[in-house]
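Figure 6 in text form: structure in, sequence out.
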């Protein structure tokens, strides 16, 4: 039937497309061929005789309730996509739903957002043992479909994709905070941070070993004109003086332009900051869990925050510049 419909369309200067059982004919001709579709005396659209014959001879029937004829000054919709423009697009309602779902997740939390979505929109009948898809799967699928239709370079797609990734990383962080497996939590923290650097388009390097495999580096990244090596720590106790001092030695053994980025989720002991201020080389900035949470909550841009920490270190020799202090100063300006 596809071959016959293709030939039929070509004979009448039309294009033929099909997705499953949705069939579309389109043309640049001013008058649509009556062999394919026409307006009857009751002002209703009906399938033309030649098209009807091909469909019936192949054992199919047309659903008259789904026959539509649209000129270019009307909204032309094919399988849920609007095709009036040079490239297809989704309905505005589809984009508004994505925005509403992400807003609900951000404002009310994942559990409440999922419950409200299932109550309002999940009307599909399922067997007793088949669970509905998770809210995260639904949002991700909708955003990926949006990118497939309008391009993954489109600013609308990028905005929602960025928001989704950030909220998802925040969920991972909150889940890790409840975990009692400190070793696994530390490993997953490294993966989370690599994804966060990627999200903010900061070139990053995963963990590696150097100096004949004797020295472990948790990661690194490049920001502006500076290179950083990183230490990531999530233990039950704060980072102590010896651990920070060991990282300082690693930084000093690196290139002259290399800085240190020490992230300790549970902070550090009281003598860590005085130690760093005493060191002749001011080359380490500190970050804790509240700073990371502020970034993942979209209160602070990661790149701008790191640059502000560096400026604070260079001007005031203070290795730690916290999120609340940064936000206070930012709001004043």
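Output sequence:
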């Amino acid at each position: 039937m596809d071959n016959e419909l293709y030939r039929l369309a070509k004979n009448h200067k039309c294009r033929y497309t099909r997705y499953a059982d949705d069939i579309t004919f389109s043309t640049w001709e001013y008058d649509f061929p009556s062999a394919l579709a026409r307006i009857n005396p009751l002002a209703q659209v009906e399938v033309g005789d030649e098209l009807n014959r091909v469909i019936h001879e192949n054992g199919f029937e047309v659903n008259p309730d789904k026959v539509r004829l649209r000129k270019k000054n009307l909204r032309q919709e094919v399988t849920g996509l609007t095709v009036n423009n040079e490239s297809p697009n989704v309905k505005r309602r589809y984009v508004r739903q994505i925005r509403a779902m992400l807003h609900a997740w951000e404002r009310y939390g994942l559990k409440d957002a999922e419950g409200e979505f299932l109550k309002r929109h999940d009307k599909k009948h399922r067997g007793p043992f088949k669970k509905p898809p998770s809210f995260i799967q639904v949002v991700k699928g909708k955003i990926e479909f949006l990118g497939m239709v309008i391009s993954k370079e489109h600013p609308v797609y990028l905005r929602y994709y960025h928001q989704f990734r950030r909220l998802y990383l925040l969920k991972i962080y909150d889940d890790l905070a409840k975990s009692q497996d400190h070793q696994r939590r530390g490993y997953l923290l490294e993966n989370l941070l690599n994804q966060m650097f990627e999200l903010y388009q900061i070139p990053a390097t995963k963990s590696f070993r150097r100096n004949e495999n004797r020295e472990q580096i948790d990661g690194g990244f490049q920001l502006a004109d500076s290179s950083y090596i990183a230490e990531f720590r999530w233990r039950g106790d704060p980072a102590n003086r010896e651990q920070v001092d060991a990282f300082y030695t690693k930084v000093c053994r690196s290139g002259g332009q290399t800085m240190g980025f020490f992230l300790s989720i549970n902070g550090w002991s009281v003598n860590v900051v005085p130690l760093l201020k005493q060191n002749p080389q001011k080359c380490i900035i500190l970050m804790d869990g509240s700073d990371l949470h502020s970034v993942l909550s979209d209160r602070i841009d990661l790149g701008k925050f790191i640059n502000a920490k560096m400026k604070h270190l260079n001007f005031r020799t203070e290795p730690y510049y916290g999120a609340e202090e940064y936000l206070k100063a930012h709001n004043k300006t």
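Caption detail: DSSP finds twelve helices and 13 strands in the chain.
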